[in-house]
Amino acid sequence: MIYSEKQYKILEEQLRKLKKENEQKDKELKLLKKQNRQKEEVIYDLDKNQYKEKYNVTLTNYKNLLKINNEQNLEIQELKKKVKDLESKLATQRVRIEKDSSNSSKPSSTNGFKKVITNRREKSNKKQGGQKGHVGTFLRDPLLKKNINIIDDIEEEVIEINKNEFNKDKKSSDKESNRYRY
């Protein structure tokens, strides 16, 4: 077959393109062969080191741990419920203990030794004791003397009354003692 120059050039160009494609395919093939070898080595290592068995063992361990974890979660939930119940019981007991005759209808005899002191006085910034500029009050002598005189008078009257009573009793007992003498 005889080709013309144009056809010949076209065929040469196609040949160059095909060679380039072939070179690229060869490079790709080498790269794929290299990757394939690496994968085969990994598979060989896996088989050699028995990773499948180790994987199965770790999988069963993982499943056991999940089971234990679920059991512990259930136990934790039960304990949380118990804690809530006990906290509510404690709160009711606290309320019951804090009640006394001042804040409930209980009699004051059930308060025990606890004295309830209510101080409704508001605290001021003043110091304790007499304040400057304030004239204090005190007992005056005339009142004191008057009270002492009244007390003295009462004491004298009581003494007189007692003397008279004593003397009357003595006289009557003397008469009786004289009567029965032999």
What's the story with the biggest beta sheet?
none
Strand content: under 5%
Gyration radius, rounded? 60 Å
- How many structural units, i.e. domains? 3
State the gist of this model.
The chain has helices at residues 5-49, 51-98, 141-179. It is mainly alpha-helical and 182 residues long.
Could you walk me through the main structural features you see in this protein, from its secondary elements to its overall organization?
This protein has 182 residues and is mainly alpha-helical. It has 3 domains: 1-49; 56-117; 140-177. 73% of the residues lie in helices and 0% in strands. It has 3 helices and no strands. It has helices at residues 5-49, 51-98, 141-179. The model has no long low-confidence stretch (mean pLDDT 79).
Index terms:
73% helix; rod-shaped; 3 helices; 182 residues; single chain; mainly alpha
List the helices and strands and how they pair.
Blueprint: H1 5-49, H2 51-98, H3 141-179
